[in-house]
Specification:
The protein is about 80% helix and about 0% strand. The chain is an all-alpha fold. It has a single domain, classed as Tetratricopeptide repeat domain (Serine Threonine Protein Phosphatase 5, Tetratricopeptide repeat, Alpha Horseshoe). It has helices at about 5-10, 20-30, 35-50, 55-65, 70-85, 90-105. It is built from six helices and no strands. The chain is globular, with a radius of gyration of 14 Å. The longest helix has 18 residues, at about 70-85.
């Protein structure tokens, strides 16, 4: 486990715990090659903030990379809905493109 992962994990459960921390931890885990753990942290991030479109986008990508296309499709669909609620047009467009690519496979 890298120092970055360890220091971010130390913050979990404390007053700074939240969606942003969990997405940061997931990114660090992905950099460490720990995709399954990253997916779990992204799901925790979405428990904190179900409309966090960046978390949905990274979850979809992580699920694609793990070989779970069906779960990635579900994540992108949820992410598009969340992005629309939040008015995040760029994330909505990106996830729509990713979803279309996956649907063709």
């Amino acid at each position: 486990m890298s120092n970055r992962v360890a220091s971010l994990r130390a913050l979990c459960g404390g007053p700074r715990d939240g969606a942003l921390l969990r997405v940061g931890l997931a990114s660090a885990l992905l950099a460490d090659g720990q995709g399954a753990n990253a997916i779990a942290e992204l799901r925790r991030a979405l428990e904190f903030d179900p409309d966090y479109s960046a978390a949905w986008k990274l979850l979809g990508k992580s699920l694609v990379d793990s070989g779970d296309a069906n779960a990635a499709i579900d994540a992108y669909r949820s992410g598009i809905t969340a992005a629309m609620r939040r008015g995040d047009k760029q994330a909505e467009k990106e996830m729509t493109v990713f979803l279309k690519r996956l649907s063709k496979v």
